[in-house]
Amino acid sequence: MKKLDSILQYNYEFVKDEKYKVFETSKHPEKKILILGCMDTRLIELLPKAMNIKNGDAKIIKNAGGIITDSFGHEMRSIIISVYEFNIDEIYIVGHHKCGVCKLESDYILDKAVERGISKDTINMIKASSVDLEKWLTGFETVEMSVANSVNIVKNHPLLPKELIVHGMVICPETGKLDVIINGYNN
Questions:
Q1: Which domain holds residue 129?
Q2: Alpha-carbon torsion 14, 15, 18, 22, what sign?
Q3: DSSP designation for 102
Q4: CATH code of residue 81
Q5: Residue at 9 is within a domain
Q6: Which of 29, 37, 55, 59 would disulfide-bridge 66, Cβ 3.0–4.6 Å?
Q7: What CA–CA distance (Å, rounded) separates 2 from 147?
Q8: What whole-number distance in Å separates Cα of residue 136 and Cα of residue 69?
Q9: Environment class of residue 15 by beta-carbon count within 10 Å: exposed (0-12), middle (13-18) or buried (19+)?
C-alpha cells in the first residue's frame, strides 16, 4: 500500500470514529507561549511532554535545527504574528543535543542533491544569484551558541515589544531533560 493511501485509510477511520474530539481546543494558546524547536523526529511528542504542553497550550514552530537565521525570515514572521494576534508573552527557543544541523556543511547537502538528480548547473546558477547557498545550508557550531543567537535575534527584533520574555533551552532527545541556556526572566 502506498503511504498516501495508508494515511487516507487511517484518516477515514479517525474521522468516522470521532477520534479528533480529544484534540478540540481554541486556536488561541492557553499558556500564551510559543516554542521554536527542531523538526527532529525524536522530539515530535517528547518536547511537548517534557515541557508539560498539551494540545491548545502553545504555538509550536519547527524547522531544521530549531533556529532563526534571518530577522525577516518565515520563523520571525510567525513569531511576530503570534505575539500580536495570539497575545504570546513568552517565547522558548529549544535546541537539542546531537542535532543533525550541528556542524552541517553545505557541500554535503548539495552533493546529496546531485545524487538525487539536481544538476550542478542548477546549483551553480543558484550560487551565482543573490542567494548565499553555502550560508543558507550550513549548520551551526554548537547548539548552545545557536540557541543564544536565535534568542538574541528575537529579543532585539525591532517589531517586537521589549517586555517580551525570550528563553533559550537545550533538550536531551533521549531523556527529555531541559537545560536552560538563557533565562528570559533575568534579561
A1: 105-138
A2: positive
A3: B
A4: 3.40.1050.10
A5: no
A6: 37
A7: 38
A8: 8
A9: exposed
Indicate whether 41 and 96 sit together in one domain.
yes
The closest of 55, 48, 50 to 29, measured between CA atoms, is 55
Nearest by Cα to 32 from 79, 86, 76: 86
Does 125 lie in the same domain as 39?
Answer: no
Let me know whether 100 and 161 are in one domain. yes
- Which residues have a Cβ under 8 Å from the Cβ of 43 and sit 6 or more positions away? 37, 96, 171, 173
What is this structure's pTM? 0.93
Q: Which of 156, 154, 151 is nearest to 182 (CA)?
A: 151
What's the Cα-to-Cα distance from 168 to each of 5, 70, 115, rounded to whole Å?
40, 17, 37
Residue 5 lies in a domain: no
**Residue 48 counted as domain residue:** yes
How many domains is the chain built from? 2
Residues 68, 75 contacting (CB under 8 angstroms): yes
Strands of the chain (E only): list them. Answer: 33-38, 58-63, 90-96, 165-171, 178-182
Residues 86 and 55 in one domain: yes
